[in-house]
Amino acid sequence: MTSWSLLPLALALLCSSTHCSLDCDLTQGLQEDFSLLNQMSTFPLVSCLKDRTNFNFPKEALNGSQLQKENATVIVLEMVQQIFTLFSQNATPATWNQTQLMQLLFGLHRQLEQLERCLEQYVEWEESSLESENPRLALKSYFQGISQYLQGKEYSHCAWEIVRVEIRRVFLFMSKLARKLRA
Ligand SMILES: *[C@@H]1O[C@H](CO)[C@@H](O)[C@H](O)[C@H]1NC(C)=O
Ligand SMILES: *[C@@H]1O[C@H](CO)[C@@H](O)[C@H](O)[C@H]1NC(C)=O
Ligand SMILES: *[C@@H]1O[C@H](CO)[C@@H](O)[C@H](O)[C@H]1NC(C)=O
Predict the structure, then answer these.
(1) In 3D, which of 28, 180, 163 has the Cα closest to residue 83?
(2) Phi and psi based region of residue 65 (left: phi greater than 0; alpha: psi -120 to 50; beta: remaining)
(3) What confidence score (pLDDT) does residue 43 get?
(4) Whose CA is nearest to atom 7 of ligand 1?
(5) If DSSP codes are grouped into helix, strand and coil, which group holds residue 42?
(6) Which of 29, 73, 107, 154 is surrounded by the fewest CB atoms within 10 Å?
(7) Residue nearest to atom 3 of ligand 1 (CA)
(8) What is the predicted pLDDT for the residue at 18?
(9) Would you say residue 180 has pLDDT above 90?
(10) How far apart are CA 25 and CA 30, in angstroms?
(11) pLDDT at 20
């Protein structure tokens, strides 16, 4: 169970007492995260080509979820949560710029909070989050594959670089979704 399953209740209480912003525009935040992700390593990727693999990003499973705003929001939330968990591991390369890595984690955390507030506006989101269970499961198993890959490669520097490049693709996908959410 994810820890944010109780959030609608918590946020409902919070939003009734204070004013609660429903700013659902993530495009700028994601853009900032993306450029941190790009900048935080200068390791030459060429030397890691032998470690390339296909992580099978679940494009098909996520396709239908672009139609409805609330499930798209749930999907982006799941992605941000998983990326946050991935990069909060202590096993990331020491040569990555630690300041930028921290800034990235802070940014992701801010986006999580924003998404949770944003979901609050969808009255039936608990129901719809059940309906988007399949895309979420597909995502979970995708990120599980990434973790297993890292483990199998004993968290080598090259394995992390390959993962960093893969997560860039996830960011591009999220940005596309985020632009739709804003529209
Ligand atoms: C997503 O669905 C649309 C229409 O249902 C289809 O045209 C498109 O090829 C699909 N995209 C992917 C990546 O599966
Ligand atoms: C790490 O990133 C910070 C913030 O962008 C920058 O000021 C610093 O120079 C970088 N450190 C290295 C070693 O590149
Ligand atoms: C998206 O949510 C709607 C209800 O809000 C639901 O009918 C639909 O099945 C959901 N789609 C996916 C792919 O989860």
Answers:
(1) 163
(2) alpha
(3) 92
(4) 63
(5) coil
(6) 154
(7) 63
(8) 39
(9) no
(10) 10
(11) 45
The CATH architecture of the domain made up of 27-40+63-182 is Up-down Bundle (1.20)
Q: What is the signed CA dihedral for 65, 67, 68, 71, rounded to 10 degrees?
A: 10
Indicate the DSSP class of residue 90: T
Question: pTM of whole model > 0.85?
Answer: no
Cα separation of 79 and 74, whole Å? 9
Residue 168 exposure: Cα atoms within 13 Å on the Cβ side: 13
- Ligand 2 centroid to Cα of residue 99, in Å, is 7
The residue to mutate among 77, 123, 128, having the most atoms of ligand 3 within 8 angstroms of its beta carbon, is 128
Ligand 1 mutation pick, 63, 65, 169, max ligand atoms within 8 A of CB:
63
Measured CA to CA, the distance from residue 166 to residue 178 in angstroms comes to 19
Question: Domain extents for the chain?
Answer: 27-40+63-182
Query: Of all protein residues, whose CA lies closest to atom 6 belonging to ligand 2?
Result: 99
Of 52, 23, 33, 54, give the one whose Cα is nearest residue 172: 33
pLDDT in tens, 105-132: 999 999 999 998 888 876 555 555 555 5
